[in-house]
């Protein structure tokens, strides 16, 4: 929806009830949770981990998670779509690395630095002064870079229930494959061949882990690459089409409009400041209260 920023930040209270949902659910956007207080457990996919604040957790799109017997939950929730990463596309790799790790524990100094950074992000988001989009993108990049440096949280054997199986591994490898340069140009069958599985198994594994089909994720990856080129280069639409793997510029324009609701030219004109985002990929904190 035009005008809705693909980013939101707030406390567990201000973001809405779903931020502390005690039933399994998943999102189409990224979620970073910084817990500063509370007891209970957080379950991500099939791994159950105790709350030992201060802690940081990155939840990837499609991951199933929920809070189990959580009490006194305090902290911050940061939500954003892939479109918000157009200024720092390398952050997608940082997010993948963080999404594969369990809860990250912070010591006193790390917690203080992170708390100050998150508060700056909240102030920028609330005040929305000139250039606040770029400031938020820069702060998010700093947050992810610092988070990758943190030592991985240790899981107590008694707290770890079921480990993700082969299907989750295949789904993760598929996501990494299509995120590589040129990866989104591969067909589903080509991806299955490179991963050493059948097309049927790949479809089942990806659907189980993300709630979406491999074809849908490939289209999303191609769309994101086209958005990045339109927003950050001066390539013509024909050149963007070629770089995004489309031999026919007319087909590319039809594809882009179908996926985003706007033409490549309209997206480029709207990508100054706040990038135009299709309604289904936008984040409105009030949506999380439903």
From TrEMBL:
Keywords: DNA-binding, Transcription, Transcription regulation
Cited PANTHER family: ARAC-FAMILY TRANSCRIPTIONAL REGULATOR, TRANSCRIPTIONAL REGULATORY PROTEIN
Domain of life: Bacteria
Name of protein: AraC family transcriptional regulator
Residue numbers spanned by region Disordered: 267-290
Species assigned in the record: Streptomyces celluloflavus
Domain HTH araC/xylS-type: 172-270
Keyword Secreted: no
Pfam families for this protein: AraC_binding, HTH_18
